[in-house]
Specification:
Layout lengths: L2 H35 L1 H15 L4 H21 L2 H23 L2 H4 L4
Length: 113
Amino acid sequence: MGWGALFSGLISAVILAPICEEFIFRGLLYNTIKNRLGVHAGVWISAIIFTAVHFYGVQGLLGVGFFGVLMGYLYRYTNALLPCILCHALFSLLITIWNWVMEQSPEELWLIR
């Protein structure tokens, strides 16, 4: 995983995914469920679906689920997607950089190709 992998990961995970996913899970899904079943059902059901789509194994289940609930309530209280998109982007940025650094050998980390 070189610098190109980091760059493509940043574009997809930090820019595209937060925008698309927040529009889908908070903008559309949450609002549809909220209008039919109420706020808490909207938050929790959309978070469960968000977790199922992002299933990273049992170890990631609670973390992703908690993040989905957090984003649901953030959207509910701000009534805006931008805070959710920015929070999602920051979270994805940290994970992407962490995973990329952990995949590098110490020698490769400082090589620019």
